[in-house]
Fold these 4 entries.
Entry 1:
Amino acid sequence: MAKESAESLSVFTQAATQSVALPDISALQAIYTIARGSSDAAANILSYEMMRELGVPVTSLPPSVFSLGDGVAMDHAAALVVSQSGASDDLVRSAKGARARGARVLALTNQPDSAVEAAADLTVPIGAGPERAVPATKTVIGAIAAGMALLHALKPAYDPAPSASALQDIAPQHPDAQRLKSAFLRARHVYVIGRDTGFGAAQEVALKLKECCALHAEAYSSSEVLHGPLQLATNPLMVLILDTGAAPVQDSLDQAEARFRDAECDVHRLRPRDVIDADLLPAAAAALLLALMYPVILDTALALGLNPDTPETLSKVTQTT
């Protein structure tokens, strides 16, 4: 995990700047993302970026619609299937089913010649190379980047190249890594909070804390968390805010931070500007926050006596229905 996560920003630069030749996609009215686990977090990040840039709905569709049911009408829509292995049976069925019901199937995968790729109209390779640790790191960040390259093909004015260039020489090490590790070691319950593309990043960090550290963590939008979930602040709670730096989300994140500090929670806020002075696209900022968090989660797991490369109950490719 240490080696692979250290390669993540290099993978990002390569995947984000690749050329994508689109199939004929006319009258596109919606995009449905289909993914599970870390890939679903990457898809969530991309959904916000694509909605902002394309002006069409982009939302998650559960694979079970196709793997357990007869599917749904997909005319004038694209199905974006995100899968590092491209091998999970429910995702393969979803790709085939979406295409049969009228969708253009676009895939982001890391394994060449996968079953998902065979069912897709277009595959944008993640290109991360072999990833052997069970927790996905460089393939998650590569999937975000590959999706940005796809978005560039859909809308040429959207250009991920400047963000990719800004990140290529960044060492994925947060200056407060030790303080964050100490906070995780004290914590029993963690809220990971974001907004827009930062919400997908929050989902991925919460998943990694569970996967690598066996630590209870939940991801929330900074607006949603102020409803019922805020009540858990009456118990000892660590709050990690992932701030992409995007201007429209600042008021929401500020309000959430103030409310949790008033409740005397252990609050930490991470921003891209902690390590870089550059204007990043929101999806690239989310990818950078993940790259900064992966080493902290790894070190926390090791301090707990756990082996994050091979979590006890997990395997690299999860077969689900």
Entry 2:
Amino acid sequence: MRRWRTMVVTGCIALMTMCQQIAAQHAAIDPQAWAAYKAKFLDATGRIVDNGNGNISHSEGQGYGLLLAYLSNSPADFEQIWYFTRTELLLRDDGLAAWKWDPAVTPHVTDTNNASDGDMLIAYALALAGSAWNKKDYLEAAATIAQSLLSHAVVHAGGRTLLLPGIKGYTASERDDGPVVNPSYWVYEAIPVMALLAPSDEWQRLTDDGLSLLRSMQVGPRKLPADWVSLRTMPRPAYGFEAEFGYNAIRIPLYLARAGISDTALLTRLQAGITFEGDEPATIDLATGKPKQPLADPGYRIVDDVLACVTSGAKLPASVRQFVPSLYYPSTLQLLGLAFVEEKHPECL
């Protein structure tokens, strides 16, 4: 235990140094855009409201809210979101967050399983904010979550290092087609920070194997990954889920871009797969390659525009640069996309 604490301290010092070197990073979102996001999705208790999903809250939303508050340089809003997160969701014995909170039900936590992407987003945002704002309690909380993820959600199967979507329900012993993963749960920009918080070579292997899987997941005529993937044999859509490139997977290209992953072949393939000439983005039936549900919101369209920016230097169209919040999820993706371009590719604005 003493050795682990020493490693965490060393990692946190390195993280603080990194954040000091990129101090401008945490003011990347326009104040008016953040104010509009808060007015639409952040309630007085500090919960991020998913208005497209019955007004529930979840660990993913809290993690996104924390990250956006950091990117907006809004410590008071960050603390408000963190208060709800730690008092209402961080209830599990293993240090991870219960994933689902429903205002219409008592008790409000209706599923105590974790969602590993939500946990990673929370830890990532806490680490960045703790480093930038010199908040040791944030860093300590981030380190605890990162170590819990490493201990319980990062696993080995079939010669790969994987991120379980949740602690329960996805392993080979729990599903006939297990292990099952969700490739959009790999938050690539966050993984190096997890390695500073909970030092281990496993994190690099998690990144490497996640990217290797993405390169191999070329389902159907559009050669796209499924939202939920069985790895019992070769990667294929998991039983019990729609065989589609859907609302989960749409964020994968944005995560790759934000992490600075410069695999041109992978990015170009994804861009080609999600683009329909003359049409809006859509969820995609993997077997036929045909669109299912249109994704007209600018928060979905910006994913393709960010890819065009990083692969060819194309400017973001005015339609996605203007932020008018609608539904929680695409509005979140839009702010993450705009913040990334503001920080890393201002030439595309």
Entry 3:
Amino acid sequence: MDFLHNTLPLDHFLALPRPDHGEVAVGTTDTSTLAAHDFDVDTRTGFMPPQPPLTRLPEQWELWETALDDALTSRLRLAEKDDLAEEDVAKSGRWRTRVSELPILSIEELKQSELLLRRAHHVLAWLMHLYIHSTPTAITEIHIPPPITLPLLQVSAQLQLPPVLTYSDDVLYNWAYKSPPSSDRPLAPPALDNLRCLTLFTGTRDEEEFYLASARIEFRGVEALGLMRAIMDEAFLGDATAVRRITAYLHALARVTADLTAILAAVRDGCDPATFYHDIRPWFKGADSDPRRRWVFDGLERDPALKQPLELSGPSAGQSALIHALDVFLGVDHSAPGTRAVPFLTRMQSYMPRHHRAFLRHLGASPRPLRALVQASRDAALVGAYNAAVGALKVFRDEHVRIVALYILGPSRRAGAPGAPAKGTGGTDAFKFVQGVRNQTAGALLRQE
């Protein structure tokens, strides 16, 4: 299925309001652009970068790139595997020794470019996960060496990201074209079948398809951002014609969300659940999912500005700003009643690129929230359209529940751990969490008179 058919005209891809840079007149809202530079949201690619990410750092950081190449080409094996040969253990040990003996490279010149910082975070976080998850399991306190620790924490501080693999490392900044797109469609979103990944732990099609499922969702979701912008413009007008247009746009949003569900379901075609659970997923586990082992970042005494990090959850689909944007825009509340704990999805926003976090904050501060507008309208067609959009998001989450059951819960039980909850990469009880999020989404449906 070609999910890029029936998209809005490109002038509707101007996403959401830019942050206030001064006073806005009372009773008005700044809807100048949802894809403003301030938010790093592109009119063609949404939260994905408009051009494929860098594939290599400049020469002065080549040692990091070479270390990553060495790990991936030598096919380091997970330390938790039962069938490790002596040579597997020795090979990973030699690689970790070489990494620990690298010089500590300065990131000063990296600070001049967001693109360089993103590539550096990608490479260093990948190196750290390879180092940790190839370390023998008998070692319960893993000391990450200064050649990784110092630049990774420094780069992470610049990007305001945790020093761990994130969704942005695995998805947003981990893609390239299979073949360059034709020059006659320079303003079109990338074709969803023309994508490949830059970095893979296992080198398998299963791993690539797992990441690309999310990448395709991000690209297909560009139209959803355009629809949000169009709805916000009409909400500002608020007349009967605007209500009719919002009704049509909400039905269109439901159709886009149905496409996202189809893309999510299609991950089954390329990624085997057992391969994912046993061979792929353990590589990108964060410290939250690795409770038997403590991660220690060595060398922090060399930079007084650095501290042992606390946020080390690893990549999660909960870090997708696109899905958060749908929740915020539709008024889906994921806060846990009766608790002061920070909701998991709120915490996952700290793992997003900082500009995308700003986008979500600004979207949430809209003076004309859609849900309130629909409730106040008492327009049956508008309420029905709103429920169609929320219902489509609920169906998306139904599919996510099935995916978690297939890829995490089932393999976990078959692996012989029936008493312990199957944890997601973010450290949550994966199945219980996605069920709760799905139920909260359903709770946003409005009663129709």
Entry 4:
Amino acid sequence: MRTVIASILLLTGACYAFVEFSKSALYDVYDFEGEISIPKCNVGCRIYASTGGYFQTSNDGLDPYAKNLIIVDNDNNKRYSIASIASGKDAQKRKIPLDFKSPSRITVVNENDKDDKKYNMVLYVVDLATASDNHDYEMYDIYDVMYPAGTVLTTNTDIVTFMGVHPFFVSAQPSNQPNSASGRLTGFDNALNANSDGCPYSFQTPPDSPTFPGFNMFFPGPIGSIVYGKQGPMKVTVNDGNSRVFDLSMDGCIVSNGFSGCSRPGVGPLPTFRFPQREVQDSVVLSSNTDDYAVTMTVLPQLKDGSKIKIDDNTGFGSKTITGSTATNVHFDKTENIFIGVTKLSTPEGYIIRYNTTLVPKPPTATGTTTVSSSTTVEMTSPTTSGVEKRTSLNVLALLVGSLLMRFE
């Protein structure tokens, strides 16, 4: 494998991650000090929560801090802990929301002591009319579908939304059957093309394609949605997204942490959602073990003066620097490794990079066959050992080389 040159920039998020969309809102643990009103519930709402999965240090496995973040129904004098809402799921592992089906005065009260340890969490609040209109969706917590094997989703849902406090990939292998998929870094309320907050897609398969190219869609958190064409079966794998080494052999997207690309009419670009307690790696490597690929990128930047994205082809040593907020196309005819370095970003700065790759054949070219399942389900499985080992080894190499040469300082 040719040399991979990488530099990893570690950033720390803002103290507050609150992002308000037209019909929904996202909160993190630092947004709740004292008692906070939840205005999206004034007309009724649906509330989902996600914490850091299973806490081994807790007797019940729940986030000890989120157990003392209490959602209060001030009209009916009822109380619900955010930790208990986060843990709720049905037999198909779909998240169970807390619904308020009429106009309600809802607040969140923080009953923790000042010095209690905080853990990353996300609260997703959608007004009830929007949640009811978007009836053909399912919501999953990545902790419920990333690690246990054998999770199966039926194909009678247009939108699948994932939420969590951990970056993740959703991947699908190519198929000779027609199908389609598109993804956005939002909840189901902004998942479709005609969405109210101008949220662009982070990835989209070619329309009307006779075959399905597969994808490797990245979600840096805290929420993301995939819209399925449902023309045929699709097997989907959820993988850990911390490595920031992307597989060059599959089409996909690269997204800066917490960025959605959304821009509300009359408001402008929405803030980024950065978890304060997670180190952010805003520089990545797009790499192959041995093969060369032609790569085409579409970069959607939202950068201020002085911020820049630098894209380096470490095979042919081509380079492209991007600034400002104008969509830019980048193409490499033949490459094995691409480094993407970013200067320190502040809210609402960020970027989405969509990329498509085509294998450059090596003589002699081996011919293979693809076996397509006749299943009528969408299957979600845990990552295979070989896939984890490959991504881990690439990440270690990137970090080692990156420690010797920093592209951005």
